[in-house]
Amino acid sequence: MTDYDLIELAKQASENSYSPYSKFKVGAALLCRDGTVFLGCNVENVSFGATNCAERTAIFSAIINGHREFSKIAVVGMSDGKIKDFTPPCGICRQVLKEFCGSDFSIILFDGKNTKTLTMDEITPNWFSEF
Ligand SMILES: [Zn+2]
Questions:
Q1: Containing domain of residue 35, as a range?
Q2: What is the pTM of this model?
Q3: How far is residue 125's CA from residue 8's CA, in Å, rounded to a whole number?
Q4: 96 C-alpha to center of ligand 1: Å?
Q5: Using an 8 Å Cβ cutoff, are 25 and 19 in contact?
Q6: Active-site choice (8, 55, 122, 130)
Q7: How many other β-carbons are positioned within 10 Å of the β-carbon of residue 2?
Q8: 94: CA distance to ligand 1 center in Å?
């Protein structure tokens, strides 16, 4: 599974986005260490706080199916049917990803032309881990 394969799956996942408020369709494709892929899209709600992001949808789908070891995730955001910029995970998704993903986990972003790969350590410096 190449990064571009994963990006293509993330694009397909964005087509199922429920985003009547932002009109911003986000798709994610999460690759498990065993090769299984779980897709996610953003699911908005009129009570905006109840909205779930594509990344968390993918992670939660994987968890409910018994998967907890992941190697990478591709995330794309579509506006007016086009990818216009990189769509990095929000703060809540970063925290959720950190719960299950180690330092070698990669976050693959795509702006329509180029890819950008971030590491878990880059997106979660000084993260909350102990209480
Ligand atoms: Zn998010």
A1: 3-123
A2: 0.95
A3: 29
A4: 9
A5: yes
A6: 55
A7: 8
A8: 7
Tens-of-pLDDT digits for all 131 residues of the chain?
A: 999 999 999 999 999 999 999 999 999 999 999 999 999 999 999 999 999 999 999 999 999 999 999 999 999 999 999 999 999 999 999 999 999 999 999 999 999 999 999 999 999 988 777 66
In a domain? residue 36? yes
Residue 128 is assigned to a structural domain of this protein: no
Cα(113) to centroid(ligand 1), Å: 23
The dihedral built from the CA positions of residue 120, 124, 127 and 128, taken in this order, carries a sign that is negative
Domain count, the chain: 1
Question: Does residue 16 form part of some domain?
Answer: yes
- Using a CB cutoff of 5 Å, list residues around ligand 1, an ion: 53, 90, 93
The predicted structure's pLDDT at residue 106:
97
122 included as an active-site residue: no
In a domain, 53, yes or no: yes
User: At 83, which CATH number?
Assistant: 3.40.140.10
